[in-house]
Amino acid sequence: MSALTLVADSLPILLQGALLTLKFAVLSMVFGLVIGVVVALMGISHSRALNAVSRTYVSIMRGTPLLVQIFVVYYGLPGVGIALEPTPAGVLTLSLNVGAYLSESMRGAILGISRGQWMAAYSLGLTPAQTLRYVVGPQALRLAVPSLSNSLISLIKDTSLVSVITVTELLRTAQEIIAATYQPLPLYLAVAAIYWVLSTALSFLQRGLERRLSLPGRH
User: Fold this and answer.
1) Average pLDDT for residues 55-84, to the nearest whole number?
2) Which of 8, 15, 28, 216 could hold 94 in an S-S bridge, CB 3.0 to 4.6 Å?
3) How many structural domains is the chain composed of?
4) How far apart are CA 187 and CA 76, in angstroms?
5) What's the average model confidence in pLDDT over 187-208?
6) Predicted pLDDT of residue 96
7) Dist CA 95 CA 89 (whole Å)
8) Residues 168-183, mean pLDDT to the nearest whole number
9) What digits encode the pLDDT tens for the residues 15-39?
10) Is residue 218 part of a domain?
11) pLDDT, the chain, mean
12) pTM of the model
C-alpha cells in the first residue's frame, strides 16, 4: 500500500481523533479559564494567605513538565485512593496546567486597567465585586484575548501528551494505525498537518476576535 493511499484510507479515523482532540482542548480551556479567574482574583486580593496559595499553585504548575503532571494525576492519585479514568484525568491535568498560565494573563489584564476605573465605579456606589464584574472584568477580558487565544492554540498541541494514558485523541489514533500498518512516517506527517491546520484556523479566529473586540482607535 502506498503512503498516499494509506493516508487517504486513514484520514476519516484521524479526523475522528482530531475532533476528540479539539473537544478535549476546548473542555480543558473552559475549566482552565474558571480556574485561572479564581486564581487571578486570589493573586490580586489583599489576603496574604490567598496570595501565597496563588503564587504556590502557579509556581508548581508552571515549573513542572505537563507530562509529569499527567503521570501524577493518573498513576499517582490512585495511591491515595483517587482513581480517575483516562479522559477525566487528562482533562483535569490540562485544566490545572493551563489554568496557571491563564491566571497570570488575567491577573496582568486586571492590573492593566487604570485605577481611575475603580475609583469612578466606587463613586457611583458600586461595590468592589460589582466593579470587577461590570466595569473592570469586561475590559480585562478584552485585553487578555490574545493571550487566552495563544493558550488555546498551545493546548491543542499539548493534548498529544494525554496519549500516554491511552486517551484516543489524534496522536493515539495514529499510533494505533501505525501498529497495524508499520508505516509511521506518512501517518505522523498527516498528524502534523492536521495539528497545523487546527492551529492555523484558530489563529485566524483569534485575529478576527481581536479586531471585533478592539477598542476604537486601536485598529
Assistant:
1) 95
2) 28
3) 1
4) 32
5) 92
6) 96
7) 10
8) 91
9) 999 999 999 899 999 999 999 999 9
10) no
11) 90
12) 0.87
Q: How many CA atoms lie within 13 A of 101 on its CB side?
A: 20
Could you tell me if residue 219 is inside a domain?
A: no
Cell numbers placing 137: 472584568
Which domain CATH number covers 90? 1.10.3720.10
User: For residues 121-138, b (16+ Cβ closer than 10 Å) or e, as one string?
Assistant: beeeebeeeebbeebbbe
Locate cell 470587577: which residue? 132
**CA 103 remoteness from chain centre:** 11
- Domain assignment present for 126: yes
CA quadruple 90, 93, 94, 96: dihedral, nearest 10: 150
Domain that holds residue 81: 3-213
CA distance to 93, 107, 154, per residue, from 161 (Å): 11, 28, 12
HSE-up (13 A, CA, CB side) for residue 7: 14
- What would the grid cell of residue 191 be? 498528524
Quick check: is 154 in a domain?
yes
Contact 101, 144 (CB under 8 A): no
